[in-house]
Amino acid sequence: MSKTTARVVRTVRAGLLALVRGAQGPRRDAGMVTSEYAMGIVAAVGFAVLLYQVVTSDVVAEQLQALVKRALSAGA
User: Fold this and answer.
1) Do residues 54 and 60 lie in contact, with contact meaning Cβ atoms separated by under 8 Å?
2) Which of 13, 27, 39, 45 has a CA that sits 20 to 30 A from residue 55's CA?
3) Alpha-carbon Rg of the chain, whole angstroms?
4) Which residues contact 1 (CB under 8 A, 6 or more apart)?
């Protein structure tokens, strides 16, 4: 094996070892902490309540009924 080939092999081997060691190294926490989960849940519940209020309002119910009536009468 020539000196150049040996050098390339050593370089590639060192790079692969560095990749393997890096992949097995300590991981950083990329998730949310408990307080962030709580805030996320509160925001989701608030949005769900708001959406429920909008969908169950009289105006939206009337519009949905009109839409269904039009859809059913269009096929006849």
Assistant:
1) yes
2) 39
3) 31
4) 9
Q: What is the number of domains present in the chain?
A: 1
| CA distance linking residue 14 with residue 6, whole number of Å | 12
Q: What is the pLDDT of residue 20?
A: 73
Residue-number span of the structural domain to which 38 is assigned: 3-74
The pLDDT score that the predictor gives to residue 3 is 79
Token pair 């269904």: residue: 68
Structure tokens, 43: 């925001």
Say how many Å lie between the first and final Cα of the chain, rounded.
84
Amino acid identity at 23: A
- The low-confidence residues of the chain, meaning pLDDT below 70, are 1, 22-30, 32, 75-76
Residue 76 per-residue DSSP state:
-
Helices (H), 1-76: 3-23, 34-55, 58-74
